[in-house]
Amino acid sequence: MTQAQLQETANLPAHSPEPGGTNWRTYFTFSTDHKVIGIQYLVTTFFFYLVGGALATAVRTELATPESDFVSREVYNGLFTVHATVMIFLWIVPAVTGGFGNFLVPLLIGARDMAFPRLNALAFWMIPPAGILLLCSFFVGSPGAGWTSYPPLSLTYDKAGEAIWILSVLVLGTSSIMAAVNFIVTIFMMRVPGMTLNRMPLFCWAMLATSALALLGTPVLAGALILLAFDLIVGTAFFNPTGGGDPVVYQHMFWFYSHPAVYIMILPVFGMISEILPVHARKPIFGYKAIAYSSIAISFLGLIVWAHHMFTSGTPPWLRMFFMINTMIIAVPTGIKVFSWLATIWGGKLRLNSAMLFAMGFISMFVIGGISGVMVASVPFDIHVHDTYFIVAHIHYVLFGGSVFGMYAGLYHWFPKMTGR
Amino acid sequence: MQGSTIDPAQTVLNYHHTESAATHHHEHPDFRVMGIIVFLVAEGMIFLGLFMAYLTFRAVAPTWPPEGTPELELLLPGVNTVILISSSFVIHNAEPAIKSNDVKGLQKWFAITAAMGAIFLVGQLYEYFHLEFGLTSNLFASTFYVLTGFHGLHVLFGLILILAVLCDRANPGITPTPNTSASKLLRSTGTSSMSSGFSCLSCSIC
Question: What is the pTM of this model?
C-alpha cells in the first residue's frame, strides 16, 4: 500500500501530525502526536541530563581537595541533591518511559496514537516547568538533604529550597502517574487485532510492568512528600520525634516508591535491549516468554523489597530477613533475562555497530551492578556498607552503566526511525 | 507507515485525535472508563499510603489518641457518612435514565447526588470550624485533618465531575444516546463516589 492510498483510507487531515509532514515548530507546541511527544521528552530530558552532568562535575571539582574551596558547604549539599533529583526524575524516568515509551509503544502494537493524547501532552508539559523550578531552588537556598530528603535532616535545612524540591518532585510524579495510566490503557485496549499479549513485543511487556510500578508507587511518594511539606511549612510533627512523630514512617513511604523507581528506570531498558540484541545478532530472541514474564515478576517483587534500604533504621530482625530474602529472589528473574540475552547473542552473526556495542556494554555493566546488588541485599554486609561509596558505586553501575548505556543503545538503534536519516 | 502490513481499517483509531476518527466513533471502545479505573487505583494508593502512616503512628504511640486530645463528636460525622454512602446508590438510579434517553431523569438524580456531596462537604467544614484542636495541636490532630482533608478534596473533585456532566447534559446541543460516553462516565463517577464511600467508612472506623 502506498503512502497516498494510506492517506486516503485513513482520511487524514491535510496537515498530518506525523513528523516529516510538520515543521520544527510543532516540537515547541502542545502537540498530541505520540511521536512528537516522544521526541519532546527525549530532547528535554537530554538537556536536563547535561545539567545533571554539570552538577556532578561541580561535585567532583569540589572533592578534588579536602577543603571547601570551590563552593560553600550548603551549595555542595545542594549540588549532589539536585544532581540526583535531576538524573532520576528529569532524565532517566521521563526519557525511558515518556521518551522511548511514547515513541515506540503505539508503533509496536499497531495503534494510531496513545489512548489519551491530550493527557499525554499534558504529562510532557509538566516536565519543563518542574525542572526549571527545581534548578531555581539554587537562588533561594538549595535543598541539601539528598534526593531522599530524610527527615529530620530535611526539616532543618533552608525551608524555601526544600519546599521547592517537594513541589517539583510532586509535579514530576503527577506527570509520571498520567503517563502510566496512558500506557496501561493503550497496551491493554489498543493492540492491533491478532496481537495477543503473548505476541506483544518485549518492550511493551516491559512498559506494562513499568507502568504498573509507577501507578502503584508514585502516589505513596506523593503522600510522603505532602506529609513532609506539612511538617516543613505548617509545623506539624508527622516525622518529628519531639512531637510524637516517627521519621522511619517517611523512610517506609519514600522507599515504597523509590525502590520500584529503580525498576521503573531499568525495566524499559531491559525491554529495549531485548528488541536491539536480536536485530544486531541476526537471531530471534531467546526465551521470549521467559523474558516477558520475568518483567512482570520483577515488577511484583520490586513492590515488596523496599525496606532493604532501611536495614540500619532500627528495622526488626524478622523484617530484615523478609526483605533480604525477597531482594535476593529478584536476582532470579533478572538472571533469566541476562542469560536469555547471552543465549540470543550466542552463535549469532554479530554486527558490532554503536547500538550493539552499547547493548553489550549494558549487559556487562549491569551484571556488575546486579551482583553488587545481591551483595548489599545481605543484611550483615549491608550494615557495614550502608551510606558508603559502595552503595554510590552500585547505584551508578545500575543507572549509568545500565539505564544510560541502554538508552544510548536505543538512541543509536532507533535514530534512523526517529529522524528518517 | 509506508510498507506497513497493517490494514489501516483494522487499527484502533483514537476517538478524539483527528476529525476522521470521530466518524468511526461507534466502532471502537471508549477508553475513558478504563482510564478512570486505572486512575482510581493510583488514587487508592495515596489513601493507602496515608492510612498506613496513620496506623503506624497509632501503633507506635504509647497512648492513642495522645493525652489531652478532646473527645470527637460522633453524631455529625455519622450522619455525614450515611449521606455520602447513600449518594453512591442515588447516582446509580441515573443509569436506567440515561439508557432510556431520559434527560430529565438523569439531571434529577445527578442533582440529588451533587446536593448530597455538597451537604457532606459543608458538614465537614462545619466540623472543622467547631473542633477544639487545630492542625498542629498534636499528632492525632494532624493526621485527622490531613486524612479527612484529603478525603474532602476527593469528594470535592467527584462533585466537580458530576456537575461537569450535569452542565454538559444541560447543553441542548447534545442529546444523550444509549451507551454514549456520558453513560460510561456516569458509571465511572459512580465508582468514584463508591470509593469515596469506602474511604469515608474506614475513616469513621478509625
Answer: 0.86
